[in-house]
Amino acid sequence: MKKKLLNNWLLKILSLAIAFMLWFIVINVENPVDEKSFSNIKVNFINTDILDEENKVYQVLESTDVVRTVRVEAPRKVLDELTSSDIVAEADFADVTINDTVEIKFYSIKSNSEIRAISGNIDMVRLNIEDKKTKRLVLSVETSGEPEEGYVIGTPVLDQNRIEVSGPESIISRIYAAKMKVDVSDSSSEISTYATVKLYDTAGNEISKENLTMNTQTVKVKVPVLATKEVKLVFEYTGQPAEGYAATGKIEPEESKLIIAGTPIAIASVSRILIPASELDLTGRTTDLTKIVNVRDYLPEGVTFTNGFNGKVTVTVDVEPLQEKEFTIKASQISAVGIPEGFFVTLPNAQTEYKVRLRGLQDELDEVDATLIQGYVQIDNMLESLDVQEVVPGVYQATVDLDFADSVSQVAELQIEIILGKEEIN
Description:
By secondary structure, the protein is mostly beta strands.
């Protein structure tokens, strides 16, 4: 027996091999190895902080952060229990190549040791790695549409007026403006909303915010909607021009009427905007005064201008040299007043002519009609100036007071002879 056991060892090995093959065949018949596909497996990135430490950012190219198909080879029982959530695709940024690619490694969080093979339709994540840049931008608001008739849009008020954007240098360098848009169509009251911040290049094209980080995506905006009203612009001036010169009274602003805006209550009582005389001082001037006046300084509280008008108006106050002109009047235009009781006055012959020289602005002198000038001899004033204690009849030199426009002055006094007579008592 011992001899038989020690001999025929080849036969025994063959028997063992046949037994293993039979076992393998039985196992595969009951639980055969098969293959199963899983779709759209998102690649997990690990150790991305390595790029952060180098102040760099990455952009995934060609959508290689999603593996469209992952094939798993494993026993059928294992495959039947696997779902897409069990399949892991992982890219370790510690292994970034000089070509900016990272190998994708696949495994299953369930029954991984029993899986014969696992692979995807792609095996590399392709990246664009750049220096990280940050830009700070001033926010602005653009409105679309038109408010209700008779209303205008005021200056928008933002909860914050700056944002910070970070990302790849190639994208950040293209960003020119950060704007928000608010629709004001047919509105007649204040609009309050949260508006989305959008980024634009110099040509006004919107820039995608993908691969960018922003400290805020939306900002609260209040857009005032104001009632409007047209009002007059009124100027006053002060001061005397230099000797021999006078203000013509002509004030020429580039705008005589302005459109104001505000709440209906704020603008209801405003009919004009008065610019005080202190703004326009003509003291000592020999030429016109031209000045830019900031009308905004004289607006009532809660009132503003429309259409972006900055409130500055150029105004000119005319100053001209005084002129002289000679006129002829007749004695018939002169009368006596203030005659003492019991006396009478005889004036020169009615056709006697007198020369009168007047000074004033040319336009005012041109309007003087010599035939309408009235003269008065104040007899009581004349006697007082002569210190007459007792009135006696006689011939007197009297000053004639002429009546003409206040803007015109007399160059020299007009003296005439009068006869003061005493009335006879019957």
